[in-house]
Amino acid sequence: MAKVCRCCSQEIKSDSKYTWILDNGHGGIIDGVYQTAGKRSPIWHDGTQLFEGEFNRAIVDRIANYCDKNNIEYINLVDTNEDVSLSTRVKMANEVYRESNKPCIYVSIHANGFSDESANGWEVYTSPGETQSDHIATVLYEEVEKEFPLIKMRKDTRDGDVDKESNFYVLIHTAMPAILSENFFMTNEKECKNILMSESGRDQVANAHIEMINKIENE
Fold this sequence. Notes:
Elements: E1 3-4, E2 11-12, E3 19-24, E4 29-30, E5 33-34, H1 52-69, E6 74-76, H2 86-99, E7 104-112, E8 123-126, H3 133-147, E9 164-165, H4 169-172, E10 178-185, H5 189-196, H6 199-218
Parallel strand pairs: 3-6, 3-7, 7-10, 8-9
Antiparallel strand pairs: 1-2, 4-5, 8-10
Helix pairs in contact: 1-6, 3-6
């Protein structure tokens, strides 16, 4: 009988080395209402607008569909459009970690934003210091660079690797290696429309994360 996670009642598969905890940042859209204050693009001249939580869910859904088809063990941590608090997300992730008979890896999906529309590019974060997360972040960085060879890759190599470091709550309070990807800028019209709001761009973002999962699983 398949094992079911007590914290989210999701079936846990067993044909992979790791349990991948996929976290789509912020809330989604319920009855036409976006659940998170801010965390959205400007309204562009053609009237379109991106809501980050919707984008994050679209990426996690693509990754989850791939994992389903390939028997890769994962948890869609926030399988709802509600805006679940950071503390609750961490609590749920750590419960999965305690219940899992395999190592867990936490992947938080986001889109970036800044007050200056010219800000652009892709980046990935880990907690401060040298940790197991650094290697995972580097593998993801390399896969994104392959998918988007003409796009600026933002990095901090002062400590010898490409990930940026931050005390983001979900990175410093999770009990397992954790990374947070900032998948281009929703406040940059070109990146927002060409990547974040396009199905092909979303496919590419998801594919980079999928290839990262495959590489880590096959190491």
